[in-house]
Amino acid sequence: MAFPCIFQEKWQKYLVVGDKCGILKNGLLLRFIYRSRKRKEAVRVNLKQLLEGISYEVQQGTADVEISDFQYDSRKVEKDGLFVCITGFQTDGHKYIPMALEKGAAALLCEHRVENVPEGVTVLVTENNRIALALLSDHFYGHPSAEMNVIGVTGTNGKTSTTYLMKSILDRIGKKVGIIGTIENRIGDEVLKAERTTPESKELQALFRRMKNEDVTDVVMEVSSHSLDLHRVDGIAFDVAIFTNLTQDHLDYHKTFKAYIEAKKAFFDRLPAHAFALTNADDKNGLVMLQNTRAHRYTYSCRTMADFTAKVLEKHLDGTLLRLDGEEVWTKFTGDFNAYNLLAVYAAARLLGFPKENVLEYVSLLVPVSGRFETLISTEGVMAVVDYAHTPDAVENVLSTICGLKGRDNQVITVVGAGGDRDKTKRPEMADAACRYSDHVILTSDNPRSEDPEQIIRDMLTGVKEGFQYRVEAITDRKEAIRKAIGMASKGDIILVAGKGHENYQEVKGVKHHFDDKEVIREIFDLSNR
């Protein structure tokens, strides 16, 4: 199979010198366009040049003005800075124009005409400031993504596992890797706190620039449907786009499944021609992602013909034997869903040009990601599985894997909840999936956030079908729910604790409290000193 060469210069008019980036025209350096991390002095930026390629109307003043910085949070506006007014879900940034002016803003970027702005302050109007913010952030930081290989992973389930497995393979190849995702952000071995799956575009581009300045060669990032719909990733020069799967989630935000599909598809629609798009051909929406993309198109599958294929040969609690691209490989992963994740990263590595035999070796050395089908075994022989499964499909996938591995006379006990302030329609479906695959189900709290945890459980109970009620009980306190499940189990039984995975907190009434499923299980198993 011939793969496209993606290692090419994607930008020709920018020059990086040390920790600065300059605009070139006819080979001449015009100006540096972002603030030096190492120097504290202000760097003046021409707003008109910063907005190159962005359509706007001048309401007042001129775009040909020097600014010191730009912010979308009025509290952070600097003297002579640009304030970008974002129309949000909770509040409207245009309401904070007086605060931005008080702090010395020299220019405003708005989504509609505004009044009572002092003379001397530039006012520009665009149709969509989220798009404008993403593109001017990319310009301001000197198009850092264009200087690295950027691999984006999108889908309902499997994004985190796929990004971490991809990073592990690139690490073994000898690359310095950045990662952006749900659990954390990383620059090589340095761990950075992640506030959300995909940061806002300004912080995202600043992170890309920091990565490049610290010699990162490859970035692997989760690309959420929210970030696509809110244009946070606009302007990023992706080289690789991976689609994992699509099942019900985030309907609290997208409202309809069609809108959710369209948000994911937008990722592939926006890819440049030099990139390649890799999709799961076994998902009914997999090929939909490729319909309008300009990128090179590739598929992977565990069930049908595709560019890259895998087949599960043997399943065990401690691993799976795969036939991967025609070769047998023992992996330290359990479950068909993990076979898809491994196949996706294998395919991406091959498309990046790395030799087959090396990639197969690296796949065999990979280890599971924290909180993804992570197992603990008590001294009495009871196994607990901690998994981030928080959608109906994910719960079903994990439980079907467990049922296929347990002994004939053993039982499956599931502890599961649903998050507050999120898609309510999946709550009964999660309970239904748990009931169908478990001998006993304990419904409990996940992250209730601002909602009443008992109401969330009542929502879940509506999904318990007739004849399954005897399998279900509700215990609001998550620790007590886990304790009850362990107390019910005997040697050989398997307990699934689903929903939180890697998370080490529980958010109740808007306050985060320390809570780690694995810590609780170890304490009850009395494995604290092991």
Folded structure, characterized:
The protein has 530 residues and is an alpha/beta fold. The strands form six sheets. An eleven-stranded mixed β-sheet has the order 14-13-12-15-11-16-17-18-19-20-21, with helices on both faces.
Binned, the helix content reads 25-40%
Tell me the number of helical segments per DSSP (H or I, 4 or more residues long).
15
Major sheet attributes: 11 strands, mixed
- Widest sheet: strand ordering: 14-13-12-15-11-16-17-18-19-20-21
Helix/strand-derived class?
alpha/beta
**What value does the Rg take, in angstroms?**
25 Å
Strand content bin: 15-25%
Global geometry: globular
Keywords for this entry:
single chain; 530 residues; alpha/beta; eleven-stranded mixed β-sheet; six-stranded mixed β-sheet; 15 helices; globular; disordered N terminus
Q: What is the fold's blueprint, element by element?
A:
Elements: E1 14-17, E2 20-25, E3 28-32, E4 45-46, H1 47-50, E5 57-60, E6 66-67, E7 70-71, E8 82-84, H2 97-102, E9 107-110, E10 122-125, H3 129-140, E11 149-154, H4 159-173, E12 177-180, E13 185-187, E14 190-192, H5 201-213, E15 218-222, H6 225-229, E16 240-243, H7 251-254, H8 257-269, E17 276-280, E18 296-301, E19 308-316, E20 319-324, E21 327-331, H9 336-351, H10 356-365, E22 374-377, E23 383-387, H11 392-405, E24 412-416, H12 426-437, E25 440-443, H13 453-461, E26 472-474, H14 478-488, E27 494-498, E28 505-508, E29 511-514, H15 517-525
Parallel strand pairs: 7-8, 8-9, 9-10, 11-15, 11-16, 12-15, 16-17, 17-18, 18-19, 23-27, 24-25, 24-27, 25-26
Antiparallel strand pairs: 1-2, 2-3, 4-6, 5-10, 12-13, 13-14, 19-20, 20-21, 22-23, 28-29
Helix pairs in contact: 3-5, 4-9, 9-10, 11-12, 12-13, 14-15
